[in-house]
Amino acid sequence: DTGVSQDPRHKITKRGQNVTFRCDPISEHNRLYWYRQTLGQGPEFLTYFQNEAQLEKSRLLSDRFSAERPKGSFSTLEIQRTEQGDSAMYLCASSLVGGGSLNYGYTFGSGTRLTVV
Amino acid sequence: ELKVEQNPLFLSMQEGKNYTIYCNYSTTSDRLYWYRQDPGKSLESLFVLLSNGAVKQEGRLMASLDTKARLSTLHITAAVHDLSATYFCAVASFSMYSGGGADGLTFGKGTHLIIQP
């Protein structure tokens, strides 16, 4: 397993366009998290899934943001009608919860850097 | 709402010196994480602290957790240039959906550490 993969690594888009990012978690991990990190700040939690169920989405920044994990494996984060303020690094993380696991760690991907021009 | 405060936010120090980074958080939690981030890179897990009084050490870094004081420290001993990075603490929060795991992590703003040769 190569860890958490995110694609693309970089995305430049024009204001008003829609963008979609993909995250492939560690295969045996059942939880997947999305964060946003702006320059000089710590990551900000957006949403997370356990398998295909989205357990928390109230922290998504606006209704322009949505996330899916249709088969409980990879996930996508979509931003509609992008704004310049959406420019940030979008990080994905995964973890294994339950089943007797005592590993409380999270593995982060390398992130997708979004620039809205 | 959980708030996490780190200090200092910026630290410049000389090789060979000792220093401590502090992380205070506002609500009860017994799960605290320390991460390292190099410029343009993702987050590297350093420590997971799971109970009051937990202490973990790896090389020149040592982390501790006092859940009663809601305080964690990251101590750097005899700093070397390779430890230059941004260090984040993050606190896990829990809800009715958390199950055996946690909801997302709330991060501090990070401590930007520069170690001068």
Explained architecture:
The complex is a heterodimer of chains A (117) and B (117). Chain A is mainly β and 117 residues long. In chain A, 0% of the residues lie in helices and 47% in strands. Chain A contains no helices and 11 strands. In chain A, the strands form 2 sheets. In chain A, strands 2, 4, 5, 6, 9, 10 and 11 form a 7-stranded mixed β-sheet that branches. A 4-stranded antiparallel β-sheet of chain A has the order 1-3-8-7, with no helix packed on it. In chain B, a hairpin with a 4-residue loop joins strand 7 and strand 8 (71-76). The chains are: A mainly beta (117), B mainly beta (117). The interface between A and B is medium-sized, with 29 and 27 residues.
Overall geometry of chain A comes to globular
Order of helices and strands of chain A: EEEEEEEEEEE
Q: Give the helix/strand class of chain B.
A: mainly beta
Q: How many β-strand runs of chain B?
A: 11
Largest sheet of chain B: 6 strands, mixed
Which two chains touch over the largest interface? A-B, 29 and 27 residues
Ends apart, CA distance between termini of chain A: 36 Å
Q: Write the H/E string of chain B, N to C.
A: EEEEEEEEEEE
* Helicity of chain B, as a percent range: under 10%
Instruction: Give the amount of beta strand of chain B, in percent.
Output: over 45%
Largest sheet of chain A: 7 strands, mixed
What's the rounded overall pLDDT mean of chain B?
91
CA radius of gyration of chain B is 14 Å
- Helix residue percentage of chain A: under 10%
Count the E strands of chain A: 11
| Shape verdict of chain B | globular
Total number of helices of chain B: 0
What radius of gyration of chain A results from the CA coordinates?
Answer: 14 Å
Top keywords for this entry?
heterodimer; A: 117 residues; mainly beta; 7-stranded mixed β-sheet; 4-stranded antiparallel β-sheet; 11 strands; globular; B: 117 residues; 6-stranded mixed β-sheet; 5-stranded antiparallel β-sheet
Summarize the structure.
The complex is a heterodimer of chains A (117) and B (117). By secondary structure, chain A is mainly beta.
